[in-house]
Give the backbone structure.
Amino acid sequence: MLEIKDLNVHYGVIHALKNISLAVNDGEIVTLIGANGAGKTTTLRTISGLKKITSGEIILDGKQIGSLSAPQRVLLGLSQVPEGRRIFPEMSVLENLEMGAFLRKDKEEIRKDMQNVYERFPILGDRKKQMAGTLSGGEQQMLAMGRALMSRPKILLLDEPSMGLAPLLVREIFEIIKDINKSGTTVLLVEQNASMALSIAHRGYVIETGSIVLTGSGEELMKSNEVQKAYLGGE
């Protein structure tokens, strides 16, 4: 579904991503783990079209998308839940969800998708008229995910969905991610909580200082000595 080949990205003179290659197959959950500043968020922002590539290719469903704008990529089935949620705090829950469908014209289908979001996240249905900024952190994360789903993505990019959430809520968010995937949406997950991410991922990549240094199934990476030492608190 998504393939990145030899991707290079710069911030001025800083070489942020160095010849990164990775693939996400249809129906998979793939996770990208690494330390702060390793290049995880830059990778997602580049796939989404929010950061320009220096060189390399981004291919979605066999189509080169590296030169397309972010809205064009959304129309092709790519949607991102950004780090820190980035909901619109002074708009209602309903208005935030409507923003997720801003490129769509199929009103009847939008209405159905809104219903699906409320079924998946009942709390959002209860609070649809409430200002989004008054929601708790967990509820805001659910809203950000619901908003992304309103564009009917083929592939959902999730950037640090567990950030700042209590452990119980983290488990709930990861169960929701598994459920979204089972419903037919492919997922690329960037996550600091490596053990949670690897526990639900089919495959994973480890990124260090802008380069992919390790790849394998979620299980293989979980058992890897390097991963255990660096990210899972092992000896």
